[in-house]
Amino acid sequence: MNYQDLIEAFPTLNFKLDEPLANYSYTQTGGRADVIILPKDVQEIQAVLAWIKDHDPTVDVHVLGNLSNVIVRDGGMEGIVFILSDMNQISCQGTEIYAEAGASLIDVTHLALGEELTGLEFACGIPGSVGGAVFMNAGAYGGEVCEVIVEVEAITQEGQPISYSNEECDFAYRHSVFQDNGAIILGARFRLNEGDPQAIKNEMDRVTELRQSKQPLEYPSCGSVFKRPQGHYTGQLIQQAGLQGHQIGGAQVSTKHAGFIVNIDHATAQDYTDMIAHIQSVIWEKFQVRLEPEVRIIGHDQI
């Protein structure tokens, strides 16, 4: 596709050509995207999808939030990458909060506190976007977003609007239907309960203190790397295998929390994926436990 034609067709859209995704990812790694579009609303997404369908329907279309639990390989991503960070409006009506997909989940929890609504305290430190949280059914400290979501608004890859009830989202541990059907998440409606503001704040403070004391927030990372295997704790397994502090290139198994891989010295995405493969191999060899990545690994290997 001639992306210049696309840009000329939509002169008011926020485009970036040949843009490093390392500028957006929490790991500070990742190759270039052919074109990044930062839409302001669903109408802009629909218009671009319709244009692509008419001009070159073979072009790959990707949708990302704030890339907090994503590794983009060093070869980058072909086609069009929508990053929804500018679609970030949040509103509250009664005990329900609606947040657009690009809104920060942390911002949603703070609005809930301000409105004296309880149910999202567990998420007050999760750095993902609302769309990413829905896509992954994000969770922490005993809670998951599926417990408080009543509806998700989305569009199909063809641009048709569609709403999903909680049940239709097919939520499971770090899973939703959106991982299977390719629909683009636009926003989510959370149903919370009235609560005591001091109790809500106390719980958020407790969760924040836990995160700050246990997680390596001082370094770039992709968050928790692996899903929790049944009957085990991932960090504990990695510690027992003697891998805490192990380094490949600029990527290191965190010395603060072995379930995290941190970028301590200009790591590449290849350093990250090599480390993930090494940890999986060692844990299987020592404990016969298969570790499955929680982090999404996308894009092309460096050519």
Please provide a written account of the structure:
The chain is of the alpha+beta class and 303 residues long. The chain starts with a helix and ends in a 5-residue tail after the last strand. Helices cover 28% and strands 26% of the residues. The chain contains 8 helices and 19 strands.
In short:
The protein is 28% helix and 26% strand. With 303 residues, the chain is of the alpha+beta class.
> Helical element count?
8
General shape: globular
Following the backbone from N to C, one meets helices and strands in this order, namely: HEEHEEEEEHEHEEEEHEEHEHEEEHE
Proportion of strand residues: 25-35%
Instruction: Tell me how many strands there are.
Output: 19
Q: Average pLDDT value?
A: 96
Whole-number radius of gyration?
20 Å
Record the strand order, biggest sheet.
Answer: 6-7-13-11-12
Unreliable runs: none
Q: Report helical residue fraction.
A: 25-40%
Biggest β-sheet: count, sense, barrel?
5 strands, antiparallel
The secondary-structure class comes to alpha+beta
Could you tell me how far the N terminus lies from the C terminus, measured between alpha carbons in angstroms? 20 Å
